[in-house]
Amino acid sequence: MDETNTFITTLATILPSPGKVYLIGAGPGAPDLITVKGLTVLQHADVILYDYLVNPALLQEASTMAQKIYVGKSNGHHALSQEEINLLLVEHAQNGKIVARLKGGDPFVFGRGGEEAETLAKHGIPWEVVPGVTSAISVPAYAGIPVTHREHTAVFTVVTGHESQERGESSFDWEALAHLNGTIVFLMGISKISFIAQQLMHYGCAASTPVAVIRWGSMPEQQTVIGMLNTIAEQVRQAQLQPPAVIVIGKVVKLAPLLQWFTPECDDRKLA
Amino acid sequence: MDETNTFITTLATILPSPGKVYLIGAGPGAPDLITVKGLTVLQHADVILYDYLVNPALLQEASTMAQKIYVGKSNGHHALSQEEINLLLVEHAQNGKIVARLKGGDPFVFGRGGEEAETLAKHGIPWEVVPGVTSAISVPAYAGIPVTHREHTAVFTVVTGHESQERGESSFDWEALAHLNGTIVFLMGISKISFIAQQLMHYGCAASTPVAVIRWGSMPEQQTVIGMLNTIAEQVRQAQLQPPAVIVIGKVVKLAPLLQWFTPECDDRKLA
User: Which residues of chain B does A160 touch, with a Cβ-Cβ cutoff of 8 Å?
Assistant: First the structure.
C-alpha cells in the first residue's frame, strides 16, 4: 500500500462512515433493459449521477428524496469534467451516501467507468460495478442483427469512434481490424463514418461489405440505415442521421431484413 | 415473400392463434443480472426452454404452471440438438404459448440465438430478442477488469474458442487478432488455453502480455487465475480450472488487483 492510500485510510476513521458507489449500466435506452440489480440499487440510492444517454424514465424509479445530478456528455458538451465527476463520487460516498453512477450501456465499455473505479479504489471507497446491456450488442439486435452467427462469424470487435477522434491518431491497427474477418461495431463513430469506411476499404475490406447504422437503438425513435462500405457515408448524409448511433459492419448485417422484429416509429430501412 | 412463407401464413389461419417466442439473455450467472424485461417475460411464460449455464434461481421466478424444458449444452453434452430446439420453439409457439428461450449471457453472442431467430422468422412466428448482460464484458468486470480503458485500449474483440475447436480450423485471422493491440476475450476457450496463448505469441503478442482466466464469473464459486501468455496454460493446469471460464488478454488485466471489488468464496488470485 502506498503512502496516499495509508493517509486516506487513516482519514476515513474521522469521517462519517463511508457510503458506497455503484457503477451501473443502464442499458441501450429502453428502460426495461436495465438489470434487476441495477434497478434495485437505483431505487435505494441517496444520490444519482447520470449521463446524457440514460433514459429519464429510469430516474422516475428513484426515491423522491434522492439527489439527482446530471453529469452527462452530449456529443462533446460536458456538463462536468471527468475529474469533477470523480470528485463528486468520492465526496458523496465519504458523506455516507449510497451513490448510483448511472451510465448508458455497460459501465466498462467506453464509459470511463474504469477510471471512476480506479479513483474509488485509490480513495478506499467501497464500490461495485453493476454490468449493463451494452449498446454494442443490443442495438444491432434491435435492428435484427446478431453480432455473431455460426454461418458468418466467430468473432466480433467493438471500437470507439469517439476516442480515436479525440486523440487525433487512433491507437489501434486499422489493417488488423480489416483483416480480422469478423463483425465490427463502432460506438460513437457516426461523425466519422466516411473515414471509417475509407480506412476499412483501404486495408482490404470489400466495398460491398454490408453496413448498418442504427440511431437511438431500442427506443421508439430508432432509425436504421443499411448499405455497403462504399455507399453508407452518403446514405447517412442523406438521412441526416446524427449521434447517438451504432455502426455495424460485416456479413451478419445481411440478416437484418429477415430478422426485423422491433417496430420503431421512424425506421429508414427503405433507404437500403 | 417467398412461397414457403406464404404457405406458413395460410396454414396459420387454421392453427390456434400463434404464441410468441422471446430469446432472453439470462446474464453471466448471478440471477439479479437478468434484465427487468427478461424477468417479466420469464414470469409470464407458458413454456421455458433453458440452457446449462442458466442459474436455477431464475427458474424459480417462473409460474408454477409453466413447463420447464432443459435443452442445455454442458461442455459438448447436448440434451437436444439445435434442430430439436428449433422445432420445440416453433411447435410451442404455434400452439399459442408464450415461450421464454432462456440462454446464458446474451442470446446473440455465440448462443446460436441468431439461428433460432432465423427459424422463427422463416416460420412466421412472432418473436423478440431480450438482450442480456454478456459474459464477455461482465465476467471480466467481476474480476476487476474493465475490457476498455482510456489509458490502455480503445478496442476489444470477443472470440469463441468453442466454435474454432468444433470446426477444426478457426475461421478468423490469428495474425490480425494479435496485431490489433486491443483487449481479447475468449468465451468457451479454456480447454484450448495452451493453443490460444501459443498462437498469439507466434503472431507477435509479447510473452509477458497479461492474461486472466475467470471461472463461474459473478457467482460465489468465482475463481480467477492471473498470469502471462507464457505462463497461463501451466497455471490453469495447476489450478485444475475447468469450464465454464472466460479468458481475458491485454493490458487491462493489470488493473485487476486494484479493482478487485467482488469477494467470491474461492478466488485463486494468489497464483498470480
Answer: 148, 154-155
Cis peptide before A257 (omega within 30 of 0): no
Out of A31, A121, A148, whose CB is closest to B109? A148
Residues of A in contact with B140 (CB under 8 A): 108
Cβ–Cβ of B172/A181 closer than 8 Å? yes
Question: Would you place residue A162 in the very low, low, confident or very high pLDDT band (cuts 50, 70, 90)?
Answer: low
Our CA-based measurement puts residue A34 at a distance from the nearest CA of chain B, in whole angstroms, of 5
- A interface test, pick of B106, B155, B187 with most A CB neighbours within 10 Å: B155
Grid look-up 487513516 returns: A10
Task: Report the mean per-residue pLDDT for chain A.
Answer: 89
Identify the burial level of A76 via C-beta atoms within 10 angstroms of its C-beta, where 0-12 means exposed, 13-18 middle and 19 or more buried: exposed
Q: Which string of DSSP letters, residue by residue, matches A193-241?
A: HHHHHHHHHHTT--TT-EEEEEESTTSTT-EEEEEETTTHHHHHHHTT-
Per residue in B92-101, pLDDT tens? 999 999 999 9
Local structure of A98: helix, strand or coil: strand
- Decide if A137 and B134 are in contact by the 8 Å CB cutoff: yes
pLDDT tens digit sequence for B186-209: 999 999 999 999 999 999 999 999
Residue A1, pLDDT > 50, answer no
Residue A203 to residue A43: CA distance in whole angstroms: 49
Q: On the CB side of A121, how many CA atoms lie within 13 Å of its CA? A: 21
Q: Which residue from A187, A263, A261 is spatially nearest to A220, judged by alpha carbons?
A: A263
User: A132 with A107: CB under 8 angstroms?
Assistant: yes
Nearest-angstrom CA–CA distance, A154 and B262:
30
Phi-psi domain of B14 (left: phi exceeds 0; alpha: psi -120 through 50; beta: other): alpha
**Is residue B128 within 8 Å of B22, Cβ to Cβ?**
yes
Residue of A nearest to B110 (CA): A148
Q: Which amino acid is at B106?
A: D
C-alpha cell at A79: 456538463
Residues on chain A touching B131 (C-beta within 8 angstroms): 27-28, 33, 133, 137-138, 141-142
Query: Is the per-residue pLDDT at A269 higher than 80?
Result: no
pLDDT for the residue numbered B1: 34
How many CB contacts within 8 angstroms connect chain A with chain B?
232
pLDDT band with cut points at 50, 70 and 90 for residue A166 = very low
Q: How confident is the model at residue A165 (pLDDT cuts 50, 70, 90)?
A: very low
Highest mean pLDDT among A79-88, A158-167, B161-170: A79-88
Residue A112 has pLDDT above 80, yes or no: yes
Residues 6+ apart with CB under 8 A from B215: B190, B221, B222, B223, B224, B241, B242, B243, B244, B245
> How much is the ipTM here?
0.91
